[in-house]
Amino acid sequence: MSETATEIQIVLFDGFDELDAIGPYEVLDNAARLGAALTVELVTLAETETVTANHGLCVEPDGTLAEPDVLIVPGGGWNDDHGGAREQVARGELPEAVAERHADGTTVASVCTGGMILAHAGVLDGRPATTHAGAIDELGESFSSVDVRDERVVDSGSVLTCGGVTSGLDLSLHLVERLADEETANRVATTIEYDRRTV
User: Fold this and answer.
1) How many angstroms separate the CA atoms of 18 and 165, rounded?
2) What's the confidence (pLDDT) of residue 1?
3) pTM above the 0.85 mark?
């Protein structure tokens, strides 16, 4: 690649929803293989050998969270109270890391109830945003400054959010279109045999 590659990191935590992270990873990696100037990694806040997802999948991360150009935060566990995103909010470290990265110029994006982590990080204040249907009322009730939208993907510039699970495919294809071009995004969608829902 002749141009500087956009560095994208997807941050994992115990209890994350598998498709929230792996779907965007596959979309973005396919885009890179097609020549898009981007890289994508699965990372954690602290060094660890494996992360266990909501449905029991064990993932070996590529490393720890750095200062990426784009940070994607998955959800998982929020609506059934099985740890995951809700536990990350209670701990506080991940929302704090998201807020710090965004303040330093990183574009942040969330999939599903990862939007609740972004809300607790303060990066949704005064912005349009969405999350999983099972948490969208809570988002509006708990964060009155957020312009809650019942949409599949919401792009407000340096912050992007999307609805539940499979909408992460639409969000990541939208990112490919933003970072590369529409043709590449459509080629990736064809490769994974997915009918895009454009923003």
Assistant:
1) 9
2) 43
3) yes
